[in-house]
């Protein structure tokens, strides 16, 4: 499995993003922001999805 396909726990994803796990839980309940994977009752985040989400929100300087 490539690093972008690695499945992260909500705690790991939150630590990478620098946000509380409760924010991820709220986003899941509202079905917004980050895509996630359900394996039975277990929630996981793909590392590649986190990287893409971060890239999409990166503000680039003008010029």
Taken in chain order, the helices and strands follow as EHHEEH
The N- to C-terminal Cα distance equals 38 Å
Task: Work out the radius of gyration.
Answer: 13 Å
What's the helix count? Answer: 3
Q: How is the main sheet built?
A: 3 strands, antiparallel
Whole-number mean pLDDT: 93
Cross-sheet strand order for the largest sheet: 1-3-2
What low-confidence regions span 5 or more consecutive residues with pLDDT below 50?
A: none
| Beta strand % | 15-25%
What class do helices, strands and sheet pairing give?
Answer: alpha+beta
Task: State the total count of DSSP E strands.
Answer: 3
Globally, the shape reads globular
Helical proportion, percent range: 40-55%
List the helices and strands and how they pair.
Elements: E1 7-8, H1 10-17, H2 21-30, E2 37-39, E3 42-46, H3 47-56
Antiparallel strand pairs: 1-3, 2-3
Helix pairs in contact: 1-2
Detailed description of the structure:
This protein is of the alpha+beta class and 63 residues long. Helices cover 44% and strands 16% of the residues. It has helices spanning 10-17, 21-30, 47-56; strands at 7-8, 37-39, 42-46. Strands 1-3-2 form a three-stranded antiparallel sheet. The chain is globular. The chain starts with 6 loop residues before the first strand and ends in a 7-residue tail after the last helix. The mean pLDDT is 93.
């Amino acid at each position: 499995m490539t690093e972008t396909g690695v499945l992260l726990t909500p705690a790991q994803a939150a630590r990478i993003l620098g946000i509380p796990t409760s924010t991820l839980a709220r986003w899941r309940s509202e079905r917004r922001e980050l895509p996630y994977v359900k394996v039975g009752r277990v929630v996981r985040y793909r590392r590649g999805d986190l990287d893409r989400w971060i890239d999409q929100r990166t503000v680039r300087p003008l010029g």
